[in-house]
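Dear Dr. H.,

I hope your travels went smoothly. While you were away I took the liberty of generating a structure for the chain from your last submission, since the lab meeting agenda had it listed for discussion. I wanted you to have the full record in hand beforehand rather than looking at slides cold. The sequence, exactly as received, is reproduced here:
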Amino acid sequence: MTREPYLMPDSERLVLEALRTVLPEHRCAVYLPTDWQPALRASGGLVIARRVGGVMRDKRYVDEGMFVVQTYATSRADASLLARRARAGLVRLCFEQFGNTEGYLSRFREATGPFATTDPMTEAQPEFYRFSANYMITTRPR
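The corresponding predicted structure, in token form, is as follows:
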């Protein structure tokens, strides 16, 4: 079976694998787990990363995805540090061309850096803090 030449890798999976590589002690997922409070306490922090948009740059055979990366922790300082560690790890692994069986990370651009944010869920939980950031991450197939 031959591979479709224009089939881009699963960029969300690549980004999650990269985050799990640089933050092995924390739970990394696409969506906030239903058991988020015990999971956060057990691991010291949660990292949520999902693709929310992007485009395929077909002339160069690369895909540029927009990702939202959110970190949760039990202190503001820990949530901030986790967000900065996630960013630093993604920058490094894009530079190093981290890959899996489908493809590689290849470029990192920051749309918005980590910032403290709240929503009705986190406002109702004063012992939890969240940081959000938006990154453009380019992937390419093998």
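Two observations you may find useful: The chain has a mean pLDDT of 91. The CA atoms of residues 92 and 98 lie 9 Å apart.

With kind regards,
E. W.
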